[in-house]
Specification:
Helix content: 25-40%
Strand order of the largest sheet: 4-3-2-1-5-6-7
Number of strands: 7
CATH architecture: 3-Layer(aba) Sandwich
Strand content: 15-25%
Number of domains: 1
Length: about 210
């Protein structure tokens, strides 16, 4: 195997970044409902992302950064990535969440690259607008295919790990499709299902 592609929220990180932000801003219940519906595949990811970002309008960027630099990581995340590197694999992270979180996590966990979204800021506060690399339900698979082309890796040399509906597009380009503590909609598309929240268990299948 040459390439491992991971989701971030609820896969490498224990929770959803946008839910942590929303709880701190007093809109937790509204955002959590939209997050859950999107991860179960009940509403379009792009629509849900925009609606959730809009609810954060006015939140201090400094507060966002503080939260994103103190997120809890799932047990075994750092150890797993270290072992994959020792096996000669590249480790890429895709997130429908935000660069504030994945950029910092890259320094902590040591993966090779992150692709995520950007919360628009003006005068030190969120405007409620969002843009970036991972705006759509198909974005992760689309980016994975492009990275495979760059690295000279194919489907047979790729493993993908995720938990929600928007991770299914990665499975189309992966031989090993791991649903990690996942929603039912993703488990149905996987060929490995892990329900124990310990990322090192993934090593048994690679």
């Amino acid at each position: 195997m040459k390439l491992a592609a991971f989701d971030f929220d609820s896969t490498l990180m224990d929770g959803e970044t946008i839910d942590f932000l929303a709880d701190a801003y007093g809109v937790g219940a509204e955002v959590a409902k939209l997050t859950a519906e999107a991860m179960r595949g009940e509403i379009d990811f792009f629509e849900a992302l925009n609606r959730r970002a809009a609810l954060l309008k006015g939140m201090s960027e400094r507060k966002v950064i503080d939260i994103c630099e103190n997120l809890p990581y799932v047990k075994g995340a750092k150890e797993l990535i270290k072992e994959l590197h020792e096996r000669g694999m590249k480790v890429i992270v895709f997130s429908g969440g935000f660069r504030y979180a994945t950029g910092f996590a890259k320094k902590v966990l040591g993966f090779d690259a992150d692709f995520s979204n950007i919360l628009h800021v003006k005068n030190g506060a969120l405007t409620g607008l969002v843009g970036g690399d991972m705006m759509f339900g198909f974005s992760k698979g689309d980016m994975l295919f492009r990275i495979q082309t760059l690295l000279g890796a194919d489907k047979e040399e790729t493993v993908a790990v995720g938990d929600g509906a928007n991770d299914a597009s990665m499975f189309e380009f992966s031989k090993i499709k791991i649903a990690f503590c996942a929603k039912e909609v993703l488990k149905k598309r996987a060929n490995v299902v892990l329900d124990e929240k310990d990322l090192t268990k993934i090593l048994n299948y690679i």
